[in-house]
Amino acid sequence: MEVPTVSLVIPPSNSIPAEPPKIISAKMLAESASLTSAIPSAYYFSEDSYELADPNDPEFQLPTIDFSLLTSDSPDQRSKMLHELANICRDWGCFLVTNHGVTESLKQAMIEAADRFFNLTEEEKHNIAKKYEADPTQIRYGTSYNARSEKVRLWRDFIKLRLHPDFPTLNENDGYSEVAMKYSKKTREIATELVEAISESLGLDPNYIYKALDLDSGVQFLLANYYPPCPQPELAMGLSHHTDQCLITILTDNDVSGLQVLHNHKWVTVTSTPKTFLVILADQMQIVTNGKYKSAMHRGRVNKEAKRISLASLHGPSFETLVTPSPVLVEREGKAPLYRSIKYREYVELQHRSRMDLKCALDQILI
């Protein structure tokens, strides 16, 4: 998979030196008295391979799927939407979803719960994650992606919870766990319907992908990202370019735009719209479809004026599931498998190592 070229910007001579040791989160840095008009040089980051798409160019208008028509009882409506879905998954790997059934009040409650979490003290946030340090896949709180090994810091903080098949408790008093449970249940229902529709759009049984990846016991994560306002957004990056390691991601935010997806060698800015989810196909989808449907490259930018909170509901196989290109698709299309079979756990570890070098994990398993 072609990925953007990354160049580290050489900071001007009058820039702030590397991040002061007392700053341990992007939020703390953004709110600190030491931050005036220039960010620390440790946050300088530039991706200059591709230019921004013209938002008025029809070629770069992000496609939309009406979820109510996709799940319609009308065979004609559903057939039409499945045809559109197939083209979108092949050409874009991502799309907006309307009429999905998740209320704005539930979305807002989840955004507010995440905001409350990020407003806790650093000690409180780290203590919550520390309760599950024996299994870091259960809960993880941090800043950047891996501050010890990244070549440059990212302008974001995050909390990541594994919500399925088991569910952790953050803090009984703040309501985060309760609303996260409700939110995750609704997004899981949407993900299940979408996976069935995607399977059917490939000419497969609706339950083919679901069963092949054993999604009954699959893992679901809720990743909340906090991007504080940045005085030099043109120099910083909220989240560097990547594809998701899972099967499918359902994304929303606090109606502050910042996500960009790569399409036809240009970055397309996703305009945040109320009552709409962004669906992103991920690496396991590209593997199981033998490259027919693409995993969408995307990144998160920051701005000067407003904090951005995004919620990514990530759905994937169980860690022990062996993911392989569909033998049915391989035989039907007469193409050799593009990717070697790999356990999901091993792929997650591979992707983590690859991201540290700003590489694509899918390229590492090409046959």
From TrEMBL:
UniProt keyword Transferase, yes or no: no
Identification of the protein by name: 2-oxoglutarate-dependent dioxygenase 19 isoform X1
GO molecular function: dioxygenase activity; L-ascorbic acid binding; metal ion binding
Keywords: Dioxygenase, Iron, Metal-binding, Oxidoreductase, Vitamin C
Species, as recorded: Ziziphus jujuba (Chinese jujube)
InterPro entries linked to this entry: DIOX_N, IPNS-like_FE2OG_OXY, IPNS-like_sf, Oxoglu/Fe-dep_dioxygenase_dom, Plant_2OG-oxidoreductases
Annotated PANTHER family: OXOGLUTARATE/IRON-DEPENDENT DIOXYGENASE
SUPFAM superfamilies: Clavaminate synthase-like
Pfam families on file: 2OG-FeII_Oxy, DIOX_N
Stated family: Belongs to the iron/ascorbate-dependent oxidoreductase family.
Fe2OG dioxygenase domain ranges (all copies): 218-317
